[in-house]
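User: Could you check the structure of this?
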Amino acid sequence: MVPASFSLCPGAYHPSLCPWCLHPSPSVLLAPVRAKLTVALVALLCFINSYDGEFVFDDSEAIVNNKDLKPTTPLNNIWTNDFWGSNLSSNSSHKSYRPLTVLTFRLNYLLAGGLQPIGFHMLNIVLHAIISALMIDMFAILIGGLAYDEKDKIVNLAPKTSLLAALFFAAHPVHTESVAGIVGRADLLCALFFQLSFLTYCKAFNTGRGLFTTPNNHSPCTVGDVVRTGLLTRLALMALGGLAMLYARWRIMGTGPPAFTEVDNPASFAENIFLRIVNYNYYYSLNAWLLLCPWWLCFDWSMGCVPLIKAATDWRTAWLLLLWCVLIGLTSQALCSQDSQRRRTLTLGLVLLVVPFLPACNIFFRVGFVVAERVLYLSSAGYCLLLAYSLGHCCCRWNKYKLVCVAVLLLLCVYVARCALRSHQWRTEQSLFTSALSVCPLNAKVHYNVGKNLADRGNTTAAIRYYREAVRLHPSYVHAMNNLGNILKERNELVEAEQLLSKAVSIQPDFAAAWMNLGIVQNSLQKFEEAELSYWNAIRFRKKYPDCYYNLGRLYADQNRHLDALNAWRNATVLKPDHSLAWNNMVILLDNTGNLGQAELIGREALKLLPSDHTIMFSLANVLGKLQKYKESEGFFLHALRINPNSASCHGNLAVLYHRWGKLELAKKHYELSLKLDPEAPGTRDNYNMLRRKLDQLQRSAP
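Assistant: Sure, the predicted C-alpha cells are below.
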C-alpha cells in the first residue's frame, strides 16, 4: 500500500496530475515485489533456452583460449591484460579493459572445475533478469522523480509506465547477443553497476541526511537551495571521480588507441569527411532500426554487410534524415512542451538512449565495428522508457485503453517469440552463423565463419564453397585464403593451395600462420629451399612459434639434415613443453639413426612432462626393446594399450617384443589382436605366419 502521505523531492510531481501512465492506486497494479518477479520471469522466459548453449563466436578467444581464466595464471594478470588475455601494452591488443568481467569468467571456471558453458550461460541469464527487475525502480525515478513515504522508502509514482517499460526491456530481442553470447556479460555488468550507482545515489537524497536534504518542493529553487542541498559538492565529486577513472583507464591502456583495420569499420577510413559523417549517421539509423524492429539480427555487421554510402544521391540517406527529424522532434518536445511531466520524461529518456551509445558512435575515437547489437543493451532502456510513455500518452489522449492494452500484449508476445528464436540460434555456432546468411549475404566474414564451422565438423567440400565465396566478396580476405589453402593442401590440390597462400602473404606480409602453411605446401611440392625460407619468415614475424619449428624440423628430416631437425624440434619443446609431436619425432629420429641411448633419454624426459602420452610410450618402448630391456619395454607397451586399447601398431610391436623375448603364446595373442584391428598392418601378417611356423615346429619336435 502507498501511504497516505509522502514527501516529494525536486522534480517529483503529484499523482493527480499524471496521465494514464502515472497512477498511484495499488488496487489496479501488481505489488512492487510481484512486479519485479513478473519482469524477471519474462526475462528468464525469453532467454532460458540458451542456458545449455556452447561457447560460440567471440567466446572462443575471450574464454576458451583465455589463459587468465585458469587457476594456474596469477590473479594479478587480469589487471594488466585486456579482455582477450593479451597484454595491454601489446600492439595487437584491442585495449578492451574489462577486469571485473574476466574475474566473473574466472569464478565460473573455478566453480565448474573447467570450461563448462552451462554455468557461464546461466549467470548471464540471471544477470539480465536482475537488471530487468531493477529497471522498474530506475524508470519510476526517471519518470516520477523522488518521493518518500513516512518510512523513508522511495514511492513509485509511475507504476504502470515503469512496469511496462521494464517488461519491454526484459523482452527486447536486441539483447540476445548480450545475454546468449557469454562475452556480452561485459554489457550486463555495465548496466548493473550503472543501475546500482544510480539507485544508491538517489537514496542519498532523502530529507534529513546532511548534504542530501532537499528544499520544499512547492517553493522556487534558489541558489541558496542548491548550495544547501549539496548539489555542487556532489557534482564536483562525481566530476573528479569520473576524470580520475578516465585518467587511470588512459594510463592502463598505454595512452594509445587500439589499431583497427578498414574491414572492421570502413566508414572511419573514408577520405572524404562529408561521406564519413553521412555513413556514421547511417550507422546510427541502423541502430535505431534495430531498436524499433529487432527482426534482422546478425552476429557481425562488418565486411560488406553495410555497403558504404558514396554519394548524396544514395536512397539510404533518407533514413538518416528521418532519424534526425524524429530526434529533433523529440528534443523540441523535451525542451519546449508546456507539460512539465512530458519535458522531464522525454529529456531523461533521450539522455538514457543517447549517452550510453556515445562511446560507440565514432565521434571521440574509432571503434572496431560497424554495428554491434551488444552496445545497445543500456541504450535500449531509454528507448523502452520512451515507448512506454508514448503508449500511455496515446491511451490518455485518444481514450483507447483496451486497444493499447491489446497492442502492448501483442508486442510483448512478438518480442518473447523473437527472443526465444534468436537465443536458440545462439546455442551453437552452426545455427548462429547460418542464420546470418539471410541477414547479411554480402558479409564475407559470415561466409568465412560458416565455412570454418563446416570444416571443423569435417564437411570440407561444403566449407570450400563458403571460403571461395568469402574470397570473392572480399578479395583481400587473407584468413579465408589461409583456411582454404589448408583444406586444398589436405586434398592434395597443392598448386592452388600454394597460389592462395602466396597471395595471402603478399597482401599481409606479417601473416605468420600463412607463411608456415605455405612452407608445408612447398615442402610437399619438394620446393625445399622455398619452404625453408617460408618457415623462417613465419618465425621472424612470430618469435614464439613452436608449431613452425616442428614443421621446420620435418623439412630438415626429409632432407636428412638430422642435427638441424633435432635442433628445430628441441626449440619447439622449449617454447611448448607439451608439444607431443616434437618429442615423439626426436625419439623416432634418434631410434632410426641408431642413437638408442640418446633416444631413451629423450623419451624419458618427454614422459616426465607428458606422463599419459601413449605415442611417446610406444616410441620409447620400441627403443627399450631394441636395447633388450624387455621388461621395461613391455611395461610401456601395456601402459600405452591401457590408454589406447585399439592401437593395432602397439599390439603388433608388443607381439614382436614377445616374439624376441621368447614368450610365443603372448606374441601370438597380440599378433592376432593387431590383425583383427588392422588386417592390412604392414609386416604383421608375415611376422604372425613366421611365429605360426615356429610354433608348429615346436609342436612337432615335442616328445
